[in-house]
Amino acid sequence: MKHLGISGGGTKIGGLFGVVETLYKKGFRPDIISGISAGAILSVPLALGKFDQIRKLVLNISLDDFFSQKPVQKNGSLTLGAAWKAITGKTFLGQQENLEKTLRSVISEKDFSAFKHENKYPVCIIGTVDFITGGRKYFNLKECSYEEFPRLVNASASLPVFTEGIRIRVRETHTYLYDGGVRDHIATAWVLTKSEFKDKITESISVFSRPEDYELLPSDFKDKNIVKILERYVDITNVEVSKNDEYMLDTLCDQKKIRNTKLFLPRIMKSTYDTNRERLLLMYKAGLAEGEKYKPEPKDKVKFRK
């Protein structure tokens, strides 16, 4: 079995998609797609082959595609609504209900039924974090209903403080499920150790939204306001978690003799919620170029392994 892991990345989602688009053009076909946050958003549309719809979305993405109540304005400052929430002691600055509508506009109930019941479509596993216990929570979307699907993806893509946590009933109780980037940036290591497919995977590709080097972040940071501080905190946390995720998947692939490819994106977007059209296009093109680094395994080796 072949696995494709897609990391979180905010509006770097276009670059993540660009990488995968090139992988498909080079003949790579995953049996399992795992994703966290942006990767979770891409998972089912990619499984169903909705490349034209995804491309249109990621190149024209706006804050309205995510937020029913925006936490920030285009210039990066708090919206009036977010400021009022902060003043009145709310635990979040915005709400991300529009993401669920966006997902439903791309994936209909009929589409999702086909995804669930037809074996030709890859399994999709998405990661979240239970903010009450701090535990990782992973969901096989083929085992979920159409009603649960957008809620679970929204939970994976929610960002603590910036957005309200998503309440999902688990075993007759309510719990908050937040962005997987709080504890995991990419789900590859979990898939290789905890999923039902862990002993069947022979090849894994992991697509990271960060650069390959271990340099933290650009040094031109300006602590202009609370939003910039929060974004910086999220960026630092994600980079550090991502580095740990990379180490674990490298170790596991080496131990299990799994063919391991890692692909990375350059720094182009200026913030978590940057929707500048020019930079979105540049990020997408950078993803297309990064995907070209993937070298398919020679067919004779594939036959030998079987």
Structural description of this entry:
The chain is of the alpha/beta class and 306 residues long. Helices cover 42% and strands 15% of the residues. The chain has 11 helices and 8 strands. Strands 1, 2, 3, 4, 5, 6, 7 and 8 form an 8-stranded mixed β-sheet that branches. A hairpin with a 5-residue loop joins strand 3 and strand 4 (136-140). Helix 1 (13-25) runs antiparallel to helix 3 (51-59) and helix 5 crosses helix 7 (148-157). The longest helix has 31 residues, at 226-256. It is globular and about 60 Å long. The protein starts with a strand and ends with a helix.
SSE order and pairing:
Blueprint: E1 2-6, H1 13-25, E2 32-36, H2 38-47, H3 51-59, H4 80-87, H5 98-106, H6 109-117, E3 123-130, E4 136-140, H7 148-157, E5 166-170, E6 173-179, H8 188-193, E7 203-208, H9 226-256, E8 259-264, H10 277-291, H11 299-305
Parallel strand pairs: 1-2, 1-7, 2-3, 7-8
Antiparallel strand pairs: 3-4, 3-6, 5-6
